[in-house]
Amino acid sequence: MADLDITQMTQLSVAPAADDVVYLGDVSEVVLADQNKHIEIENLFQYLDGGYQSDIVLNAAATLDLSAGTVHLNEAVHLLATSTELNQLDGVSVGGSAAGDITTIDGTQTLTNKTLTTPTIGDLTNMNHDHSNVVNGGTLNYSVTIPVYGAAEAVVAGEKGIIVIPAQYNGLDLIGVICGVWDKGVTGATSIGVHRSRAGSEAAMLSTEVTIGDEWYAQDGVIDTANDDVATGDIININISAIHSGTAPNGLTVTLEFG
After folding, report:
1. What domains are defined for the chain?
2. Is the dihedral of CA 165, 256, 124, 171 positive or negative?
3. Is the pTM of this model over 0.85?
4. pLDDT in tens, 174-228
């Protein structure tokens, strides 16, 4: 089929063929170039929506009138336009940051209310984030190591190794506890708990304490999710509730992880 202008399309008795071009003027004129005319979508797309593989070519000052009704484009229809041509659409800016604007790959834009699912970020340079919570970039994990007993000191039952929670840890949860000794104990096991004191009220942060038997370290404690959070000024201490029955271990170190 020969190329047709828009008025001829309304008189078609045969469907347009693939690669046909729609003109606004006579077929001798350049496709939509410098014509400064409107294509009425309700007239044009009744043909394109029928499954024909056609392109709409926007050049120069040609515009699309999207005001009438709903436009349906099937997957075989392509809109070919440059960013300059798209900028001619009323209320739309290519590379802008307002509602309805078009985001570009190479543009610098500020986006809000967007959710990125498992994004891969190549460079965090100049990104504002403090990681204090999910809103500020997602929390980071922090750890603190408490040297409860020195290498030559025998471990004794009782509370020891007190620390105070700083503001940086405020709102975090205890997510891990690992305990290690310098010299292993003999016979039985040593049990280590973690207690939190807040405004004079003490709570065990582990529902099951860490137990070091015939080994150098252990991390088998179970965190009590009802008492795992920390706040600025909380006092954390290490509570040793049981010691090896034969020979106590020497040198106890406890590392707490918060996140």
Report:
1. 4-86 (no CATH), 142-258 (2.60.120)
2. negative
3. no
4. 999 999 999 999 999 999 999 999 999 999 999 999 999 999 999 999 999 999 9
Q: What is d(CA 129, CA 124) in angstroms, rounded to the nearest whole number?
A: 9
Place of tokens 């992880």: 257
CA dihedral (20, 22, 25, 29) positive or negative: negative
The Cα–Cα gap between 55 and 78 comes to 5
| Backbone region of residue 92 per phi and psi (left: phi > 0; alpha: psi in -120 to 50; beta: other values) | beta
Contact 27, 3 (CB under 8 A): yes
Q: How many angstroms separate the Cα of 50 from the Cα of each of 1, 16, 69?
A: 17, 10, 17
Structure tokens at 155: 């471990």
Residue among 101, 100, 95, 64 nearest 81 (CA): 64
Q: How far, CA to CA in Å, does 235 sit from each of 4, 178, 196?
A: 82, 19, 6
Placement of tokens 């590379």 in the chain: 95
One-letter amino acid of 121? I
Rounded distance between C-alpha atoms, residue 259 and residue 250, angstroms? 30
Going by the DSSP 8-state scheme, the letter that residue 171 receives in this structure is T
- Cα three-residue angle 119-124-129, rounded to 5 degrees: 90
Cα–Cα distance measured from residue 73 to residue 41, given in angstroms and rounded to the nearest whole number: 11
Residues 231 and 165 sit within 8 Å (Cβ to Cβ): yes
Are 195 and 207 spatial neighbours (Cβ–Cβ below 8 Å)?
no
Q: Using CB atoms within 10 Å of the CB of residue 54, give its burial: 0 to 12 exposed, 13 to 18 middle, 19+ buried.
A: buried
- Of the candidate ranges 41-55, 76-90, 231-245, the one whose mean pLDDT is the lowest: 41-55
